[in-house]
Write a structure and sequence with these properties.
Chain A is about 40% helix and about 30% strand. By secondary structure, chain A is α/β, with parallel strands linked by helices. The chains are: A alpha/beta (about 300), B mainly alpha (about 260).
Chain lengths: ~300, ~260
C-alpha cells in the first residue's frame, strides 16, 4: 500500500527526512513515532503529495509521488495536525465542500453517513467554530473519510483532546481498522500507538527501527516474569539462578523478577522449583515494559 | 467546473457572513451612484440642461454638437463619475482577494484544502471569480441606478445619448471587469506570498495607485477619455490580466506556502 525507497527531503541545508525505506501493508495500522521536529509531518506531507521529495521514491496506493499526485490525493485521506475547519460555516457545509472537492458521487449521502457515524448529525447546522476540540477533530476525521479512501493518514489525531474525546477517536480508529483500511498514524501518544498499531516505526530524521510493539519490547528489554511471594529472599532467588534458561533473577521487596526468553515454556519449571524451595507464590505475572520505555531507549541511543 | 463552483460558494458563504465586507461591497457603488445624482439635482436638472450660456474653454471640448451648454456641463460632471464606475471594480474585490489565501493560512484550512485533488488553476479560478463577480455586479447595479436617476433628473435627450455612448459602455462593461481581474490576481499573488492578512491588504492596495492617476489626470484635463483611449486601455488590461493570471498560478507554490507558514 505504501512503499518508500530512500525517500529524502531537504529544506535548504536542513535534512528533514533521510533515506526513509518503509513498507506498510494493506489493512495495517502503522504507528510513526518520533520527537517534535523529527520529520514525521514532512513524511506525511510527502506521502500525501502535498510536497515533493528531494530524492528517492514513494509509491502510495499504486501511484508514484511526484508523478501521479492528483491520483494520490484522490485516493488517500488525511487528518492534518490541526483540524482547519471553516469556523464560520456549518458542520454540514464544511463536509459538503470537501465531498465536492473529492468528487464524491453522492455528497449529501456521504456527509449524512459520517455525521451520523460520528454523532454530529444533530449539530450539523451549527457553525464549526462553536464545536469543542473533540467535536472538531471528529468533524475533521469525517472530512478525511468522505471519499472512502483505502489509506488514511492521521497526524496526531488525539493531540490536545481530553481523555473522553481521545477514547472516542481511538474507538473510531479501531472501527476503521476492522474495515480493512490502511492507517498511517503519526503520534506522540505512545499508549495510543501501543494499543492501536500493528507495527510502529521510530523515526528521528531517519528510521531507527520498525517492528511490532511486542517485538521491540523483547528485543530491548527481554521478557521478565514477576513472582509475588509471601516473603522473598536471596535463597529463593539462588534456587532458580542455576536453571539454564534463567538469564537473570532479582529480589525486589517480596517479588522475584526473572528474565526469561520463553516464559510460556519455562514458567511451570520455575514454579515447581520455587515451591520445592518452600516459597508461597501469591501471583505470577509478566513485567511489561511500556512502549514509552522502548521509545525513550531508542531515541536516547539515536 | 464543479470544484470551481464549490470554491466560489465557500468563499461567498464565508465572506458575506462578515457584515463589514458586505457593506464595503455595497457601499461604494451605491455612494457613487447617489452622489452625482444629488449634484445633478442641485444643479437644476432639466432646467440647467436647457440653459445655453457660454462655457469656459476647458468644458467645451466635452460637448457634442447637439448639446446645450447646460447639458455639456452636466455631461462633464457625469463623465467624471463614469470614470469612477470604470474603476470601482478595482477597489471592491481587493479586501476579499487579499484575504483569500492568507486567510486560509491563518485558519489552518489551507493544508486540508490542498490535500484534495483540486488543481492550482481550479483553486485560483474559484478564488478569482468569488472576488470578481460581486465587484462587477455591485458596479453594474450602481451604474444602472446612476444612469436611470440621471436620465430622470436631466430629462434625457442629448445627455441620455451621451450616457449610452459606446465609449462608456466599453469602459464600464469591459474595462471595469478587466480591472477587477487585475486587482484580484495581484491581491491573490500578494496573499499567497505573505503570512499576515493586514500586510496582504496593505500591499494589495498598491495596485490602486497607478489607476488613480488615470482618474486624477482626467479631472485635471491632462487627457480626455475617448473611445480609442478606452479601447487601448482595454487591450493593455487584457494583456496585463493574462500576465497576472499566469504569474498568480506560477507564484502559488504549494510546498513553499505549506512549509514556510508557521
Amino acid at each position: 500500500m505504501i512503499k518508500t525507497d530512500n525517500l529524502s527531503k531537504k529544506f535548504n541545508t536542513t535534512l528533514a527526512v533521510d533515506n526513509l525505506n518503509l513498507e506498510v501493508e494493506e489493512g495495517e495500522v502503522f504507528g510513526f513515532l518520533g520527537p517534535n521536529g523529527a520529520g514525521k509531518t514532512t513524511t506525511v506531507r510527502m506521502l500525501t503529495s502535498l510536497i515533493g521529495p528531494t530524492s528517492g521514491t514513494a509509491i502510495v496506493n499504486g501511484f508514484r509521488v511526484g508523478q501521479q499526485d492528483t491520483e494520490i490525493r484522490r485516493s488517500v485521506g488525511i487528518l492534518t495536525e490541526t483540524p482547519g475547519m471553516y469556523d464560520n460555516l456549518s458542520a454540514e457545509f464544511n463536509l459538503e465542500i470537501y465531498a465536492n472537492l473529492y468528487e464524491v458521487q453522492d455528497p449529501a449521502g456521504q456527509v449524512e453517513k459520517y455525521l451520523r457515524m460520528l454523532g454530529l448529525w444533530e449539530r450539523r447546522k451549527d457553525e464549526a467554530g462553536t464545536f469543542s476540540k473533540g467535536m472538531k477533530q471528529k468533524l475533521a476525521i469525517a472530512r478525511a473519510l468522505l471519499h472512502e479512501p483505502r489509506i488514511l493518514f492521521l497526524d496526531e489525531p488525539t493531540a490536545a483532546l481530553d481523555p473522553e474525546a481521545s477514547h472516542l477517536v481511538h474507538d473510531f480508529i479501531s472501527e476503521l481498522r476492522k474495515e480493512g483500511r490502511t492507517i498511517f498514524l503519526c503520534t506522540h501518544n505512545l499508549d495510543e500507538a501501543d494499543r492501536l498499531c500493528d507495527r510502529v516505526g521510530v523515526f528521528k530524521t531517519h528510521l531507527l527501527v520498525v517492528d511490532t510493539p511486542e517485538n521491540l519490547r523483547s528485543q530491548l528489554f527481554g521478557r521478565k516474569v514477576v513472582f509475588h511471594l509471601a516473603s522473598s529472599n536471596e535463597i529463593l532467588a539462588a534456587s532458580i539462578r542455576y536453571l539454564p534458561f534463567v538469564r537473570e533473577a532479582k529480589v525486589v521487596e517480596n517479588k522475584l523478577v526473572v528474565n526469561l526468553d520463553d516464559p510460556e515454556m519455562h514458567n511451570p519449571e520455575i514454579v515447581r522449583v520455587l515451591v520445592g524451595a518452600g516459597a508461597d507464590i501469591q501471583f505470577v505475572g509478566e513485567l511489561r515494559h511500556s512502549l514509552e520505555d522502548v521509545y525513550l531507549q531508542l531515541v536516547k541511543n539515536a | 467546473m464543479k470544484k470551481i463552483k464549490t470554491i466560489i460558494r465557500k468563499e461567498w458563504a464565508e465572506v458575506f457572513k462578515k457584515r463589514m465586507v458586505l457593506f464595503s461591497v455595497i457601499f461604494l457603488p451605491l455612494f457613487l451612484s447617489i452622489l452625482p445624482l444629488i449634484i445633478l439635482y442641485s444643479m437644476g436638472g432639466s432646467t440647467a440642461a436647457a440653459s445655453d450660456t457660454e462655457l469656459p474653454a476647458q468644458y467645451q471640448q466635452f460637448c457634442k454638437a447637439s448639446m446645450t451648454a447646460g447639458q455639456c456641463m452636466q455631461y462633464y460632471i457625469v463623465s467624471e463619475f463614469l470614470i469612477m464606475f470604470m474603476m470601482i471594480p478595482l477597489f471592491i474585490p481587493v479586501n476579499i482577494a487579499a484575504y483569500s489565501i492568507v486567510g486560509e493560512k491563518t485558519t489552518r484550512s489551507l493544508e486540508p484544502l490542498l490535500a484534495t485533488p483540486i488543481t492550482t488553476g481550479e483553486l485560483l479560478a474559484g478564488k478569482d471569480l468569488a472576488s470578481v463577480i460581486p465587484a462587477i455586479i455591485a458596479t453594474w447595479v450602481g451604474f444602472g441606478i446612476f444612469a436611470a436617476g440621471s436620465l430622470i433628473i436631466t430629462g434625457g435627450g442629448a445627455l441620455a445619448a451621451a450616457l449610452l455612448d459606446p465609449m462608456w459602455l466599453l469602459a464600464i462593461f469591459v474595462a471595469g471587469p478587466l480591472m477587477a481581474v487585475l486587482s484580484v490576481n495581484f491581491s491573490i499573488m500578494v496573499s499567497s506570498r505573505v503570512n499576515d492578512p493586514r500586510v496582504a491588504e496593505q500591499l494589495s492596495a498598491v495596485i490602486i495607485l497607478p489607476l488613480l492617476a488615470v482618474f486624477f489626470g482626467s479631472i485635471a484635463g491632462l487627457f480626455i477619455l475617448n473611445s480609442t483611449l478606452i479601447l487601448v486601455i482595454c487591450l493593455i488590461l487584457a494583456l496585463v490580466d493574462a500576465l497576472m493570471i499566469y504569474l498568480a498560478v506560477r507564484l502559488f507554490q504549494r510546498e513553499t506556502i505549506l512549509t514556510r507558514w508557521k
